[in-house]
């Protein structure tokens, strides 16, 4: 590789990059489309999966204990207190319209001190007949809270208690789990759809023929395109991370540089697929058909939209070896489980194997026109 | 004048169809050599084999001492090519395109001088897709000149152009010839061949029917006893058109 070789690559890269950033439609699909996807899937998965109840709180008591109890209820994450209801009657109407899951009433005299100077009384929990489960759950949670207070007041603690605990113990949200899939989707669509579309178009217009009239090699052309897509891919992924961090409180557990390494080799891998398809196809019709055949199984079976563990065993065994699977798994392991490159060697090995296979194919099937 | 291109028994086959049938000819250094023929005669295929753009199935081409088949890349470095349907990248200005081609040839031509040479200075910031047909052809000649080629190949350079643009392109080709660059062009316009070419080869059906200077070909035809019904006219319709619309370029 000499300076002459690199001068050509640099000039082609610069030309491709300029053209890329001048294409408004292309920019939209490349950068905004994945972000739209991110927003849609992000919002679907952003709330944590814990139970939540919309309740109306009707406090008819004027005791200070009732006031404290109300404050605690409002602070409780399990309950979302809906203050729209003005009276018990109004609240019942709202519950009938499914606006509320339950009504918690602190009746007159609740919390008044009893004979031995301790607050007493009963909380009324109303629930709709149609959904008794939510009402019973609210009542149970309420009982639990009162039991806690009882024990603090010196009452004997019940021998058996239930404690509520979320399954996402490490503080990871559902979003953190799906984010790796969305990154994989972006890398795949950029690499495959981008080049598989671009090369046949350049063959058709004759731009590729004109380049070929100059003393350049296919290697230089590929190298330049790769650099261009690497730049575009990195920008696209950075945008996604910015949104993930600032909008969806993405929780990064692993090392950023190791993640970047996986992302870069993943872009190289997916670029290879686009190169093989676009290099082989004589026109856009051929490449569109082949792109669907190659990309759709990966999109649907590599764990972007459906978790792979829900698939039957035989399908899991097959999809383990799909090129996109180690990409998504590798990134997910780093991001959610703080794994290192050493830990994900199986994934890296599979990506490396696919890179060798797909570039060997791409070089064989490439045609200039 | 020495020969700069020597073509021997050049053959091209597509399946069982032979489109170029063992043709031989030479092009002298510094001349404008025209390949004439009807559509489908094999002109473009012949040109593309000489330009190292299409594999040679039989015979040989030696260009400035370089065997095209053996060293296609070396040949590409010293020739300039304007393809029949030359396409350039979209969304790239003329100046940017020339900077890119400069790098592809590892040459150091001045893009602004090249644009001035083909009268496109004021279009240097335009995209190719916004040019008129004549401007596009002139630009593709500018792009073909970045590497200061020994030979310039033009494939039907004036097809589809209006009379003004054609005349303008003819002048440009004559200027290029004056700089000592050998020009090989194809055309199916006889007036163009007669005006520009020092020698012409007439191709038909994959074979070269004859090669000579335009004057000799005409003389030979008359010598064979050919005579056309003569009606001496002081002007023809094209003269009227140019007289009424002027020689200035419309673009």
Walk me through what this model shows.
The complex is a heterodimer of chains A (369) and B (251). Chain A is mostly helical and 369 residues long. Chain A contains 13 helices and four strands. In chain A, helix 6 packs antiparallel against helix 8. In chain B, the strands form two sheets. A six-stranded mixed beta sheet of chain B has the order 6-7-8-3-9-10, sandwiched between helices. In chain B, strands 2-1-4-5 form a four-stranded antiparallel beta sheet, covered by helices on one side. Chain B is α/β, with parallel strands linked by helices and 251 residues long. In chain B, strand 7, helix 6 and strand 8 form a beta-alpha-beta unit. Chain B has nine helices and ten strands. Chains A and B meet through helix 1 and helix 7 of A and helix 2 and helix 3 of B.
Task: Considering the chains and any ligands shown, give keywords for the structure.
heterodimer, A: 369 residues, mainly alpha, four-stranded mixed beta sheet, 13 helices, 4 strands, elongated, B: alpha/beta, six-stranded mixed beta sheet, four-stranded antiparallel beta sheet, 9 helices, 10 strands, 35% helix, globular
Coarse structural class of chain A: mainly alpha
Would you count the extended β strands of chain A for me?
Answer: 4
| Rg over alpha carbons of chain A | 30 Å
Largest interface: A-B, 25 and 27 residues
What percentage of the residues of chain A does DSSP assign to strands (E)? 5-15%
How far apart the termini of chain B lie comes to 39 Å
End-to-end CA span of chain A: 26 Å
Mean of pLDDT of chain B = 91
- Count of distinct strands of chain B: 10
Q: How helix-rich are the residues of chain A, as a percent range?
A: 55-70%
Write out the strand line-up for the largest beta sheet of chain B, numbering strands in chain order: 6-7-8-3-9-10
Main β-sheet of chain B, in a few words?
6 strands, mixed
Q: What's the pLDDT, averaged over the residues of chain A? A: 85
Helix segment tally of chain B: 9
Low-confidence stretches of chain B: none
Gyration radius of chain B, in Å: 19 Å
Poorly predicted runs of chain A: 164-169
% residues in beta strands of chain B: 25-35%
Oligomer: heterodimer
Order of neighbouring strands in the sheet with most strands of chain A? 2-1-3-4
Q: Which H/E pattern describes the elements of chain B?
A: EEEHEEHEHHHEHEHEEHH
């Amino acid at each position: 590789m000499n300076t002459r070789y690199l001068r050509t690559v640099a000039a082609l890269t610069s030309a491709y990059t300029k053209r890329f950033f001048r294409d408004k439609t292309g920019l939209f699909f490349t950068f905004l489309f994945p972000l739209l996807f991110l927003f849609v899937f992000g919002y679907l998965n952003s709330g944590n999966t814990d139970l939540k109840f919309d309740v109306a709180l009707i406090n008819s008591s004027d005791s200070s204990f009732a006031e404290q109890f109300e404050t605690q209820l409002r602070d409780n994450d399990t309950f979302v207190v809906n203050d729209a209801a003005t009276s018990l009657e109004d609240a019942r109407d709202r519950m009938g319209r499914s606006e509320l899951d339950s009504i918690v009433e602190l009746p007159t005299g609740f919390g008044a001190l009893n004979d031995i100077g301790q607050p007493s009384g009963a909380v009324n929990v109303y629930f709709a007949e149609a959904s008794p489960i939510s009402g019973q759950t609210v009542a149970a949670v309420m009982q639990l809270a009162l039991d806690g207070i009882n024990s603090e007041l010196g009452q004997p603690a019940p021998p058996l208690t239930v404690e509520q605990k979320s399954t996402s113990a490490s503080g990871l949200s559902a979003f953190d789990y799906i984010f790796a899939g969305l990154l994989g989707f972006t890398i795949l669509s950029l690499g495959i759809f981008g080049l598989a579309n671009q090369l046949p178009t350049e063959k058709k217009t004759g731009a590729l023929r004109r380049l070929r009239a100059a003393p350049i090699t296919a290697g230089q052309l590929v190298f330049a395109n790769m650099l261009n897509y690497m730049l575009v891919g990195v920008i696209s992924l950075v945008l996604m991370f910015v949104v993930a961090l600032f909008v969806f409180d993405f929780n990064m557990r692993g090392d950023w540089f190791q993640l970047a390494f996986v992302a870069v080799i993943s872009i190289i891998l997916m670029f290879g697929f686009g190169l093989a398809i676009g290099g082989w196809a004589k026109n856009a019709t051929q490449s569109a058909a082949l792109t669907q055949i190659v990309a759709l199984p990966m999109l649907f079976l590599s764990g972007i939209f459906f978790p792979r563990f829900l698939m039957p065993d035989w399908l899991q065994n097959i999809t383990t070896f799909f090129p996109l699977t180690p990409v998504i798994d590798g990134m997910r392991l780093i991001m959610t489980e703080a794994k290192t490159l050493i830990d994900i060697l199986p994934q890296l090995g599979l990506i490396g194997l696919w890179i060798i296979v797909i570039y060997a194919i791409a070089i064989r099937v490439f045609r200039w026109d | 004048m020495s020969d700069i291109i020597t073509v021997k028994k050049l053959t091209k086959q597509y399946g069982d169809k032979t489109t170029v049938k063992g043709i031989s000819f030479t092009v002298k250094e510094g001349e404008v050599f025209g390949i004439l023929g009807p559509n489908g005669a094999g002109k473009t295929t012949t040109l593309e084999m000489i330009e190292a753009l299409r594999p040679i199935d039989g015979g040989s081409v030696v260009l400035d001492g370089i065997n095209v088949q053996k060293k296609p890349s070396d040949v590409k470095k010293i020739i300039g090519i304007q393809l029949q349907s030359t396409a350039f990248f979209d969304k790239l200005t003329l100046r940017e395109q020339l900077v890119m081609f400069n790098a592809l040839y590892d040459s150091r031509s001045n893009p602004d001088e090249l644009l001035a040479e083909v009268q496109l200075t004021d279009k240097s910031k335009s995209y190719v897709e916004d040019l008129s047909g004549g401007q596009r052809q002139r630009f593709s000649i500018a792009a073909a000149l970045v590497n200061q080629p020994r030979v310039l190949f033009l494939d039907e350079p004036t097809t589809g152009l209006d009379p003004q643009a054609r005349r303008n392109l003819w002048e440009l080709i004559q200027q290029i010839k004056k700089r000592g660059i050998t020009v090989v062009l194809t055309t199916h316009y006889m007036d163009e061949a007669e005006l520009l070419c020092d020698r012409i080869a007439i191709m038909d059906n994959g074979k070269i029917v004859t090669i000579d200077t335009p004057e000799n070909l005409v003389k030979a035809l008359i010598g064979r006893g050919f005579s056309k019904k003569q009606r001496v006219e002081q002007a023809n319709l094209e003269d009227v058109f140019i007289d009424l619309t002027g020689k200035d370029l419309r673009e």
